[in-house]
Amino acid sequence: MTVLVTGPTGFIGPHVVHALRARDVPVRALVRDPGRASRLSAWGVELAVGDVTDPASLRAAVAGADAVVHLVAIIKGSRTDFERIMAQGTRDLVAAAQEAGVGRFILASALGLDEGSKDRVPYFAAKWEMEHAVKASGLEHVIFRPSFVFGRDGGVLPTFVRLARFAPVTPIVGPGTQRLQPIWVEDVAEYYARALDLPTAAGRTFEIGGPDAPTWNEFWERLKRVLGTRRPAVHVPFAVMRVQAALTEWLPGAPVTRDQLTMLELGDNVVQSPDAAETFQLPLVPLDEQLRRAVA
Questions:
Q1: Which helix (H) or strand (E) holds 236?
Q2: Distance CA 92, CA 162 (A)
Q3: Counting beta carbons within 10 angstroms of the beta carbon of residue 82, is it exposed (0 to 12), middle (13 to 18) or buried (19 or more)?
């Protein structure tokens, strides 16, 4: 079985590729710049040079593949960017997968996406279109909607660690009473790897999160406890954060965008269904252990 992975050089992608290669699964990685993929090459991964916005390169990359793991996404940009890269890119990849006779298509979506939230921000709108393209394709598929993905080498957790360690106060957006359910990146990768051939996963959408669902207030207290810091917390109203985001969201490394604030305001970001836990029976890393790993 050869698996095509898109987005293999981002935060989650290398962990997914590593989980597949640990099972000795042949992997082909869609990369724009082979120079950034030396780690993948060292793992014995075949590199396919291309881009999700280039349908011809997608057809070449998927030819002969038995499965696709589609991880490509952006977190900021214009509505046109979200449509071009995420929505249309997925439609073109799905079409290429249909043409190639791919046996299973595994898609990365987002927790909190539903009929009520899909039009609130361009990111959710694009994820909704991606899900629709996969579900309507006739391909055997699995869709994952993960909560916040934590890891040592990317994502938002290193930023949280720096804030808790060095900032004079801990800024908490809003009242801090909304809940989150962080999942460790290697657990996410394991879900994708197991989804390749698990018969009971076919045709289903799974919400995935870790074993703990603290409020934001509780999360920051737990992080500071692991770090051994006692800095006070300050609650920053959403309106104030929105003004700041409007000024900084286009800067490299900006901490938050207005769209991300809108998603936070939607409420709890927690798993509503036990389907993933019951179907995959995957032991998950507890939050305190995630934090210990991140600061080690």
A1: strand 233-236
A2: 39
A3: buried
CA distances from 59 to 44, 63, 70, 125 (A): 22, 6, 14, 25
Taking alpha carbons only, the member of 25, 34, 22, 33 closest to residue 4 is: 25
Token match 């879900």: residue? 191
7, 73 Cβ separation under 8 angstroms: yes
Structure token digits, residue 58: 């997608």
The CA-based angle 275-281-285, given to 5 degrees, is: 105
Write down the number of H helices and E strands in the chain: 13, 11
What DSSP line would sit under 7-29, residue for residue? STTSSSHHHHHHHHHHTT--EEE
How far apart (Å, rounded) are the C-alpha atoms in residues 190 and 198? 12
Provide the β-strand partners of residue 70. 6, 107
Q: pLDDT, tens digit, for every residue of 29-77?
A: 999 999 999 999 999 999 999 999 999 999 999 999 999 999 999 988 8
Query: Which pairing describes strands 67-70 and 46-49: parallel, antiparallel, or unpaired?
Result: unpaired
**238-270 residue pLDDT tens:** 888 888 888 777 777 666 888 888 998 898 999
CA distance 160 to 109: 23
Q: What is the pTM of this model?
A: 0.95
Copy the structure tokens of residue 172: 């908490």
CA–CA distance, 52 with 87 (Å, rounded to integer): 10
Q: In 3D, which of 148, 112, 172, 111 has the Cα closest to residue 287?
A: 148
| φ, ψ at 191 (rounded to 5°) | -60, -45
Alpha-carbon gap, residue 242 to 260, rounded angstroms? 10
Strand spans (E) along 75-213: 104-108, 141-146, 149-150, 170-173, 183-184, 204-208
Q: Token pair of 27, please?
A: 């992997």
Two structure tokens written together for 275: 């389907």
